[in-house]
User: What shape does this take?
Amino acid sequence: MSTPRIDYQAVFAVTPSPYLVLTPDLMIVEVNEAYLRATGRTREELIGHYLFQVHPDNPADPDADGVRNLDASLQRVLRSKRTDTMAVQKYDIPISGRPGVFRAKWWSPINTPVLGPDGEVRWIIHQVEDMTEFVLTRSLRPGPEEAGGDREAMEAELYTRARELQRLNEELREAHDRERRTALTLQEAMLHSPDLAGHREIAVRYMPAARSLNVCGDWYDVVDLSADTFTVAVGDVVGHGLEAAAVMGMLRSALSAAVRAISEPGRAMDVLSLYARTFEGALATTAAKAVVDTRHQRITYTSAGHPPPVLARPDGTVDLLDQATNPPLGLVVDHLPRPQATVSYAPGDTLVLYTDGLIERRDEDIDVGLRRLTDTLARHTSLGPDHLADTLLTRLGVADGGRDDIALIVVRL
Assistant: This one.
């Protein structure tokens, strides 16, 4: 027995709750009958129009904030790709056929993203319930003589608390956004590498986490040691926000100074590890550093608990530089020299350093992500550094950011 085919358009049209469908740029592309009844509008007045063109704030209400609140919710949906439930909103609607005349309305909105095959928001379903009768028929301060006063007082209190909760949530989001912007500005300033301008063969990328309110402590650095020697490094500080960004700046500067005085990456990492033990926020930081000697065509590298650098050859051969790995910074109590290893390279080879946000996924072993990276390098190693950096981010699914920060260096040797 075959299952009958469902006419989803017909089902949507008669769904009891009011719905409209928006594109990511907030154009109305579909609406059901319940929404038309609730708003008193026609399909022609809505379909194909910008949401806030057909639903502006009531100009006669100086306290109107419906547009601002709804737009903030829709932008959160686009950024997080998650449903956003709003508190009850006063959002007056224009009366059809009477320009400039509005009807007072209260709504309970829910905004739900619909993702496409690429994981991006394709549409937003905007669902509302008309709360106008509830709000207008219940006094916010019912007298004791009123029948059912206790219940009505509780309902009114719940409504008031919901509005207050929304206000506090908005303030919290704004505070987080300010901290994120401040941390990003600080991080971008500290990631500046003056020596990078002289290396057209090096591409760098920094991608903040896409679904986090805070930035993390990932960094990259490029330092010239002599006319034919330079060093590249990446690192990852545990933690989030301004503290992690500040710790990142201190560690990055310390390693940059150490490697200028001590060209061996293992010994420079020793100095950084001792420094990391002097303040708690730096403990368990991971880092990888490589010194490139262009005269002798060799790379000397070391890693402090960090994913291994990768050396890719033009013929598609890919080598993990994993022969000099030690625990993260500050975790070894008894001071022991950190190991370093040296590998030869040929002109046209590509060296890649990165942080774990590029390869780690919560639902899979890290070796799967590492294999995805090496497979991508093997297929695309002929690309130029900038193109290859963008291809790596795209092929590993983090071109628009991932769950964690990402620092990436691609060096064409």
Observations:
- The radius of gyration is 28 Å.
- Residues 16 and 398 are 39 Å apart (CA to CA).
- The longest helix spans residues 149-190.
